[in-house]
Backbone:
């Protein structure tokens, strides 16, 4: 059975067990094309495990994953990335002592299949420089191009992660806690950046900051104890007693 055309990503009864412990249980997730879809839930709800299953970093115990109608349940992580599913940390700024520009350029080289060919002609690298500068402009980092990455403020490093993710030209971006550990100013900047990059692609994000989730998400899926508890817009799910209980405990429900 093929996946519905409206949905770029779909899981059916997705399940993951670890030595008898069920971390993800019968999760049916449908991510519509061109939307920002948030995956939220209390600690231990199974959000990161779902991400690891989607990107094939963990084998599936049961169920199936469809991307653009293709069953990718048993594909390797590299195959999934080539299809257009890219997770932010997979190609984050892993070279702290290279410049911001160099990090984006390396991500671009990966997409071209010339990864780490540092002996490539200067002309090839100049072409990549133009593309890299465009990406830095898009994420507000143009003036930081020559900074050594390790010297960047924390929020700017996350923007660089998004730039290196964009360098892979993903159709579906998976963002894992994009605003974690940030102050207000950085949170607002990254929130606006996510809205901007989502203009012509689909974003699935795990995010704890409810202000971010309520501001930019089209659809929210709430996980609790590895299962889907609720789904809908922020207004539809935020007031549901079972969601409040999952987050705050029965004393606050």
Residues:
């Amino acid at each position: 059975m093929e996946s519905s055309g409206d949905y770029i990503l779909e899981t059916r009864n997705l399940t993951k067990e670890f030595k008898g412990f069920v971390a993800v249980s019968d999760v049916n997730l449908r991510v519509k094309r061109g939307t920002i879809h948030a995956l939220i839930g209390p600690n231990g709800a199974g959000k990161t495990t779902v991400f690891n299953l989607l990107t094939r970093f963990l084998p599936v115990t049961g169920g199936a994953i469809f991307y653009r109608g293709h069953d990718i349940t048993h594909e390797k992580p590299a195959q999934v990335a080539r299809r257009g599913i890219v997770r932010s940390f997979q190609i984050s700024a892993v070279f702290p002592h290279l410049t911001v520009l160099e990090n984006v350029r390396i991500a671009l080289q990966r997409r071209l299949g010339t990864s780490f060919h540092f002996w490539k002609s200067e002309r090839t690298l100049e072409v990549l420089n133009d593309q890299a500068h465009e990406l830095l402009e898009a994420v507000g980092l143009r003036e930081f191009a020559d900074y050594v990455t390790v010297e960047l403020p924390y929020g700017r490093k996350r923007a660089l992660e998004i730039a290196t993710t964009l360098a892979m030209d993903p159709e579906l971006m998976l963002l894992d806690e994009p605003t974690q550990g940030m102050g207000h100013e950085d949170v607002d900047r990254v929130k606006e950046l996510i809205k901007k990059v989502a203009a012509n692609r689909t974003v699935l994000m795990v995010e704890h900051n409810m202000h971010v989730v309520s501001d930019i998400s089209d659809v929210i899926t709430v996980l609790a104890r590895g299962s889907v508890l609720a789904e809908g817009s922020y207004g539809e799910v935020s007031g549901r007693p079972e969601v409040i209980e999952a987050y705050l405990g029965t004393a606050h429900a």
User: Anything to note?
Assistant: The chain has two domains: 1-83+202-253, 85-169. The chain has a mean pLDDT of 88. The radius of gyration is 19 Å.
